[in-house]
Amino acid sequence: MSGDRVTPPANTKMLIGVLAFITALGPLAMQIILPVLPVMQDAFMVSAGTVQYVLSLALFTIAFATLVYGPASDRYGRRPVLLVGLVIFLLGSVVSAVAPTIEVLIVGRVTQAVGGAAGMVVSRAIIRDLYDRDTAARLMAYMITALVVAPMVSPLIGGLLNDAFGWRAIFIFSGVIGVIVLAVALPRVPESLQPGTSAQTFRGMLSGFGVLLRVPAFLGYAGQAGFGMGMFMAFLGAAPFVTINVLERPPTEFGLFFILISAGFMAGTFLTARLGQRIGLDRMMRIGSGLAVAFGVVMLAFVLAGIWSPWTIFLPGMGMAFANGLSMPNAQAGAVSISPRFAGTASGLLAFLQMLMGAGFAQLAGMVQDDTPLPMTVIMLAASVLAFLCAMFLTRVGGDKI
After folding, report:
1. 112 and 207 housed in the same domain
2. Segment 10-30, tens digit of pLDDT
3. pLDDT, tens digit, for every residue of 234-267?
4. Number of domain units in the chain
5. Would you tell me how many other CB atoms lie within 10 Å of the CB of residue 22?
């Protein structure tokens, strides 16, 4: 024990690697089914609206599950809650793989989502328990990479598995990955919750949500992270339509161009990991937020000028992803640093708000398509402006703590 913080393990790189894989489980499982939704529709002979529940109910579940894991980890400890989540994820993967009906598949997917949410919440709380505020921001850059890159690559994996073995292989693959992660986590993930901080009642922990929502600094950090996720999810939801239907490019070309988005975000998080401590959490977040707005304006200018091509969409999008990689890890670290006592609760509430806002922007981007790239561009720019305003709001309220 060092002061009021549990001593970090000797091998930080190993721990962060394990936590990154755990964090990626939920997003990977949620998005890996996208290419096979029509296949499952045919297999179960149901409507498109019915098979869509396989995705939408899982996303809805994962958002609300994050609200439970944060307070639970504050009371019962990080390690047991995380391991229980991994077991639930495995159970959901098995149910989904053997589902005889669409209803059972939906139940399996919801169960999988409940388990996958654990890593998204508890991993961040573990980092905040073990490391100081600026170091946590640097390490969370790697975590956010896993959280955002997993949905980018998982549809490609899902399509390849379906082509080779059929759609059920996707859930077998998810289960195998879950088993590997659990086997690695058991000996390597420590209990990081400070002794004595878990004595409050569960009802008292839930009241932490109300406490956090009354702290202006938490709202600023959460708003920046949430609108940043909304900017990304709007692109994720609309870019396939724009590329394939509007620009009339093949799906494989869309997949190749999407690598630019992954590369941009990873470059941003890498730079945050290297320079974040030197520049400072809040300043790094403001720089990233401002750059996202600038690249959004560039994309809008191309669209309004009628210069439509994958390059004029994906290169500014790459810039926005890079900017998000600079700002999002710092916003998350700031949010969970508001109170060490409520670190798990803050992580759960933050994850919930990010998922909810991201899903809202993705749904909006999908609903307002008009056979041009304009709606997607406007929505992305609006989200980036709102994220920037939240970052600037923090310069007025400061980094309040409770």
Report:
1. no
2. 677 888 888 888 888 888 888
3. 887 677 778 777 888 776 676 677 778 878 888 8
4. 2
5. 29
